[in-house]
Recover the amino acids of this structure.
């Protein structure tokens, strides 16, 4: 089992920045693929960003390219999402996801509110 905890959400003005973090514990592995998704009420959860276990490959949704950056901490069990130039449409609950040994794990989600 892998547990994911996501501190770091909050309220920010449009144009501002926020960094989310996801701390993985349990049967983690440096080979885990990690990613971020987000969801607003009434809509499906959507992909935001992901990083490969080698850290050499990252991918982003078109809507966040150039504004968001996903990266791992030195300890590899922490993944960050640096969000710059936030827009009101970025407001959502953000979820961390880990793919570990073929299994998917999700964090509890953290609210990001962007005021215009």
């Amino acid at each position: 089992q892998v547990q994911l905890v996501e501190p770091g959400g909050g309220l920010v003005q449009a144009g501002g920045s926020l960094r989310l973090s996801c701390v993985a514990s349990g049967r983690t592995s440096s080979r885990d693929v990690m990613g971020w998704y987000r969801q607003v009420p009434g809509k499906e959860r959507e992909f935001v960003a992901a990083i490969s276990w080698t850290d050499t490959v990252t991918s982003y949704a078109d809507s966040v390219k150039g504004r968001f950056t996903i990266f791992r901490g030195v300890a590899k069990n922490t993944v960050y999402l640096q969000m710059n130039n936030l827009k009101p449409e970025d407001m959502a609950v953000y979820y961390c996801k880990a793919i570990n040994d073929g299994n998917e794990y999700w964090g509890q989600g953290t609210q990001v509110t962007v005021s215009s």
